[in-house]
Design a protein that fits this description.
Layout lengths: L4 E5 L10 H6 L5 E6 L9 E5 L2 E6 L4 H11 L3 E9 L4 E4 L8 H7 L19 H19 L2 H14 L6 H16 L3 H17 L2 H14 L4 H9 L6 H9 L5 H7 L1 H10 L4 H16 L7 H4 L19 H11 L12 H11 L6 H9 L13 H4 L25 H21 L1
Antiparallel strand pairs: 1-4, 1-6, 2-3, 2-5, 3-4, 5-6
Helix pairs in contact: 4-5, 4-6, 5-7, 6-7, 8-12, 9-13, 10-13, 11-12, 15-19, 16-19
Length: about 425
């Protein structure tokens, strides 16, 4: 039985980060122990430890083999030796070992969407970058088996630039197969191409690339011709409320992350290793929601300051002029002040909606803000794209003038706390002007 070699990366994200270079210089020959470290991003994550120090994770391409070793060990850990150390990656030798089957790992640590379905039409993800990844993979194998080394190198260089836009498990499996083929080839140029693929894999888990890909999915994929086709291909009887419920049923809190943190969304869905077909189903659902207008709220919710649910009149509010509202916002807006990020404009929306009968629709609210007589350019400015998800949170339908009575859902508590601080500051600023 051959020795099992696994690659360990993520050294910049764990305890070793501050002295990574010093550690790498003397790492060869040290014992390294693996243990499962499941996380919301990756239920199959395997951590690597030197004594009590977590030095990184088994690379995603090798994690299935690591889990097979761990499941067969009987004790949940395995120990090997660091055979080679480079700046950002270690190669560890675990010797010959018994292995559980891949089916056992998949039963114990299932990935994927389960029984999840969506009413939105299938997303034919033929937009440039993901389609090009699939094409480059086909060309790679054609050139590799034809012995066209320079063509293989060119394809790998292109894949290095674009494969991060394909978060599917299919891409990850293909990348590993290409890497293994290149490392077994007796050609220095192909060995360097293998290193290029290895570097691409290492970069995939980094925050910078995940943030970039998340923004691409959220901001660019929604502008494609294929995205527009979703609207015409989806049955006309499908309602937005129906699709919202479907999105909320996605595993891994994907819908919530899509609304609030696109980088974390990309990281979680990458860790799920979905087949491309499932990736397209998820993106179809989310992109369709981005392209469909938010439904108007019922009259009793859309105009919360007019009357109570039982028809009794609400307390008469104090009136504020546009100039007073503008001065109050200027007083709390800016670095080091309560309104210091674009997302916190959702709190301004919440309070002015209740206190001054500002528009309920987020886009109309931003237009109303733009019409105010400010004496200086605001930083941060009010931007609908930054608040469009937050203004639909359920606590926005509760009276912002009665903060002690507001009861946010558990998932909205962090957003509520942030909004509450801005609301109080704005209310105090307006009170001083009245």
């Amino acid at each position: 039985m051959d020795s099992i070699f696994l690659r360990i990366n993520s050294m910049t994200h764990h305890a070793i980060a501050a002295r990574r270079e010093e550690f790498v210089a003397q790492a060869a020959g040290l014992n390294v122990t693996l243990a499962a470290q499941p996380s919301p991003h990756d239920v199959r994550c395997v951590g690597a430890f030197v004594n009590a120090l977590r030095i990184g994770n088994v690379r995603s391409d090798d994690v299935m083999m690591a889990q097979r070793m761990l499941m067969a060990s009987g004790c949940g850990t395995v120990t090997g030796r660091i055979a080679k150390a480079s700046d950002y990656e270690l190669l560890a030798d675990f010797g010959p070992r018994p292995l559980a089957s891949e089916e056992e790992v998949e039963r114990a640590l299932p990935l994927g969407l389960g029984t999840w379905t969506t009413s939105v039409a299938p997303f034919a993800l033929s937009v440039a970058l993901p389609l090009e990844v699939e094409t480059m993979q086909k060309l790679f194998w054609h050139y590799f088996h034809s012995g066209r080394v320079e063509a293989v190198v060119d394809v790998v260089d292109r894949l290095f630039d674009i494969m991060r836009y394909d978060l599917s498990g299919d891409m990850q499996a293909q990348r590993l197969m290409m890497f293994n083929a290149l490392t077994e080839a007796d050609d220095e140029r192909l060995q360097r191409a293998a290193e290029r693929l290895s570097e691409a894999s290492q970069r995939m888990g980094g925050d910078h690339q995940m943030d970039e890909v998340g923004r691409w999915l959220h901001d660019e994929l929604t502008k494609t011709f294929e995205a527009d086709l979703l609207l015409s291909d989806t049955p006309i009887e499908v309602t937005r409320a129906q699709v919202v419920k479907e999105a909320q049923a996605l595993p891994g809190k994907l819908y919530r992350l899509w609304q609030t943190n696109v980088g974390a969304f990309a990281r979680v869905i990458y860790g799920m290793r979905l087949p491309r077909a499932d990736m397209r189903r998820v993106m179809a659902c989310l992109v369709w929601l981005e392209l469909t207008p938010e439904e108007e709220e019922p009259e009793e919710v859309a105009k919360p300051a007019t009357e109570e649910a039982d028809g009794a009149p609400m307390p008469v509010r104090k009136g504020f002029t546009d100039e007073q509202v503008a001065r109050a916002i200027e007083a709390i807006c800016g670095e080091g002040r309560p309104l210091d990020t674009k997302k916190k404009w959702a709190a301004v929306y919440w309070y002015l909606r209740w206190q001054c009968n500002y528009p309920v629709k987020g886009s109309e609210f931003c237009e109303r803000i733009a019409s105010l007589p400010f004496t200086k350019k605001l930083d941060p400015e009010c931007c609908y794209n930054n608040i469009r998800k937050l203004v639909t949170l359920s606590f926005m339908n509760q009276d912002a003038r009665q903060l002690d009575s507001v009861k946010p859902s558990r998932s909205d508590e962090a957003d509520f706390r942030q909004c509450r601080a801005v609301v109080r500051s704005l209310a105090e600023a307006l009170a001083k002007l009245n």
